[in-house]
Specification:
Elements (H helix, E strand, L loop, with lengths): L15 E8 L2 H12 L2 E2 L3 E3 L2 E7 L5 E6 L7 E7 L3 H10 L3 E10 L2 E7 L5 E6 L4
Parallel strand pairs: 1-5, 6-9
Antiparallel strand pairs: 1-6, 2-4, 3-4, 4-5, 7-8, 8-9
């Protein structure tokens, strides 16, 4: 299997460019989104409790659909495109967010982090890897 990678796009900083959807039936959600919304999907790949279904709704945005984790509600989490994931994560914590997932390399070209902003809202950050 080819290792996944992503070439990071400059100029979309501050945009929500990825949305993670947690579903009770990821395949059914994928099929519905393809049919009703016209989203295109890459072949799924295994993560955690099941497959991850990467989708695109434009050249500048998309996301993924995955199975909910035990004791997790269904829902969606926006991920904001940033220049530097670690800097954005640290700034968010300094400004009052709670840590959820620290900056982590997901694949070549992608580093993500997750915080809980004041008010309880989950917000993700995605920036290029520096390795």
């Amino acid at each position: 299997m080819t290792e996944r990678s992503h070439e990071f796009t400059d100029g979309l900083y501050g945009w929500i460019t990825h949305t993670d959807l947690a579903s009770n039936d990821a395949t059914a959600t994928r099929n519905w989104c393809a049919d009703v919304l016209g989203w295109t999907f890459q072949p799924p790949f295994p993560v955690g409790e099941g497959d991850y279904h990467l989708f695109a709704y434009s050249d500048a945005g998309g996301g993924g659909i995955r199975q909910v984790r035990p004791d997790e509600p269904t829902g969606g989490t926006p991920t904001v495109h940033v220049r530097d994931t670690r800097a954005a994560y640290e700034h968010a914590l300094h400004a009052g967010a709670e840590p959820v997932n620290p900056p982590t390399k997901i694949m070549d070209g992608v580093c993500t982090a997750l915080v809980r902003a004041p008010g309880g809202v989950l917000i993700g950050f995605s920036g290029p890897t520096t390795e």
